[in-house]
Protein: Vacuolar protein sorting-associated protein 16 homolog
Amino acid sequence: MDCYTANWNPLGESAFYRKYELYSMDWDLKEELRDYLVAAAPYGGPIALLRNPWQKEKAASIRPVLEIYSASGMPLASLLWKSGPVVSLGWSAEEELLCVQEDGVVLVYGLHGDFRRHFSMGNEVLQNRVLDARIFHTEFGSGVAILTGAHRFTLSANVGDLKLRRMPEVPGLQSAPSCWTILCQDRVAQILLAVGPDLYLLDHAACSAVTPPGLAPGVSSFLQMAVSFTYRHLALFTDTGCIWMGTASLKEKLCEFNCNIRAPPKQMVWCSRPRSKERAVVVAWERRLMVVGDAPESIQFVLDEDSYLVPELDGVRIFSRSTHEFLHEVPVASEEIFKIASMAPGALLLEAQKEYEKESQKADEYLREIQELGQLTQAVQQCIEAAGHEHRPDMQKSLLRAASFGKCFLDRFPPDSFVRMCQDLRVLNAIRDYHIGIPLTYSQYKQLTIQVLLDRLVLRRLYPLAIQICEYLRLPEVQGVSRILAHWACYKVQQKDVSDEDVARAINQKLGDTPGVSYSDIAARAYGCGRTELAIKLLEYEPRSGEQVPLLLKMKRSKLALSKAIESGDTDLVFTVLLHLKNELNRGDFFMTLRNQPMALSLYRQRIEGRVAALQTAADAFYKAKNEFAAKATEDQMRLLRLQRRLEEELGRQFLDLSLHDTVTTLILDGHNKRAEQLARDFRIPDKRLWWLKLTALADLEDWEELEKFSKSKKSPIGYLPFVEICMKQHNKYEAKKYASRVGPEQKVKALLLVGDVAQAADVAIERRNEAELSLVLSHCTGATDGATADKIQRARAQAQKK
Structure:
């Protein structure tokens, strides 16, 4: 027992702190930590290092390398930094690395060094540059706060939903504050900064001067400040060597400690345990680490090399080039069991179990003593709780064996807590492994939740371990194995060195018909990676047509989408694809596509017939009501009716463009010319408009024989120049020449020029002696081929002038 407590350090009379090694770091750092920009994520997260050459003139031309490691020092990513100077690094709650540049641009990278996105902190930051930056976490997400060269602050409380907020100006601020930090009070992010002996609190509305209650006199400057992990407490380090600790609202003082060191510390962070009354602050200098609290003494450690502090929910992680350690307050259950000469029920039960293994009768004596005091249930609970806070598996097993031993003598002790702790510790020991490198404590694990832990394993691409944990904890498939397999498949489609067929086959063999897995989501990721053919192959495994079709339309595979929609038998889905096709294709291609899909054509005809019937019914009802109204109308009402009629005509023209075009086209396609003409009469469509609709529909269908019959059916009210234009638009010069011969004299020249017959157009223009037409023909003449025609026109002009 006394050996186990050798690394316990008392702080006051009621608290002990211990520091134990998590990992022996195996990273090969070429520089000291002081030469790097360092960022370490909480909850046992990764570590990012970026060597900072921008402050050294001789290294200004050297491009630094951004390195990302696990908490155990295992390399995760390394990339050459090709962007601008970086001021600060930080991790978001989703373990994305935020790199704040001097120009105010924030680059976001994934855990494996993959670039995600970027955003700017605004033009003012760009113009004044960034002096300092902080990445912080709140209940809303991860935020960024910027101090600019103009000594103004800009803040965004959530980088996922970027809303920049320019903080109020600090009166008389001419230089950068000596220190500053982020507070979160009443769901609002605030900035606390120190200017000489004064403290200012900035919120979205005002700048307020604040004074810490009970601060010792003689302070002329604040050198460092730290806010607790939960934003409830604040610590201030003054130039007198005094450390003030109180609430973050600056309304209550907890304690004050004079460390007699006036040199500014490198770092200062809080070290506290959830639901504990003890509060402590860890202060680090070059070679000294000090733990201070509400006690006259402090705990001091010697640092052999440059170290970096990472505040956690229940302690502080401390890493250097060679080691990674964890400093925390000893939990109450562990203290009760392991402190020297403890007579706590858990301590007696642990001794009883050890004596039982030795086959000693002392086991019975210890057990009887616990039972006589009626504390056996408490003893079992203490051992279970203490096991959760132990990092070494051998101590976990020893405590759990003691708890199991004690349970045997209890009639109604519920086994849930014991079983749950065994499961939790097995999961924690698996992720604490050196090759995984996530040193979560039991308190952090419970705060993080198993779902977030699984997400972090997926983020590290540790899919087998994540699946084993899901199966071991018997999580529902949709929340566990299925979700992880879907993430694995989305990662698999990004492997561009493997063929589409091999990737699709591997995914299908692994996933099969796993419930909760959507092949369409995986296909969408493949399409986003530029692998369209792979996406189509994956969609073949998607059983739901409603999920296949939207992505096929997005990939511009509309005809395949139409086939899938028809196979599904869902008429609504078919109409959705038809609407998309109608907007995507020209009318000719659209109706040719329908001809090749009889079911789609039939559904489209039904829709058109329904539209025609509805239009006719609406027209009959409208005109009946209007006639009844006109019979009883006064003079004023008649003027209103005429105004309404003009509005109807205008709206009717817009309606025709949007609706009747498709209706008439379909009727002509089916050979229902009489019905089309009847529809035109019902809605008083002018003959010219109806001829345009018929002409356009037949030309789009490239039905030249039917178009010829239509042109001869009666005299065209729009002339024959539109026939020429439509044919040339469809690149049919032969048909265009045929209609050009029918065009009247007034439009003959234009028609001939459309079909490229410049010489004949010149003859017609000369014969008509029309100066405008002569100029038009002359503008179409080219020097190489139409020189003789141009001369002919010039001679005709000269003769006309002589006359």
